[in-house]
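Hi U.,

Before I forget, here's the chain from the pilot set. I'm dumping it here mostly so it's searchable later in email.
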Amino acid sequence: MNRFLYFAGFAYIAVCGAIVVREVLARTPVEYAVPVPAGPVEDRPDLAPTTSGAHWFAAMKPYCNQVEVDVRERFSPPPATSEGAGYAAACFALAGKIERARTIIEGITPSDRAGAASVLFNVAHPVADAGDDRASGPMMELVLEYWPNNYMALYHAGMSEYSLGQHMLADKHLRSFLQMYTAADGFTQNARQALEAMERATPSGLLKLRKRVERDSSARP
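Structure:
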């Protein structure tokens, strides 16, 4: 009797096991696709929104250097607008490629070039205000080609030229700046000091400096 019960128990277990194996084999395996992150949007200009030049530049700015700018710009071109051209010119200018920046601005309608130059100026201005006149100077000179009465571009271009020893250009730009900007602040003080230093550097400058100081002093209220 006991032998029969053992046999019946083993048979029951075997039948249950066979049923389980059949059900498992009959099922179709389900594959779950796990998306692989492609990196932040700001690291992928091709995925960044390009509805405006500002969006394009925000994604492109980390690559505005001599090594990467050309490839990235071909991979993700800016919007075909004057704003887009301004930001593209700014990107290449930040990379030190001023001629390429000029070509971009020259490639748009003449009536839109001043607008593109204003975009370029807005990018270069914080660099100049941070004290890097040498780096921002060429950018400001490019701005002046299309926006000649921008007095802050005149100031930063002049100070950059002064620091580089380009005294003729510096003299021209700083004097034009002082004709447009009359506030008694650090900008005018720096411009006057630079002009005076350049005049002291030449023998004929001493007399000119003395006469100019007397004339400026007499004109003050």
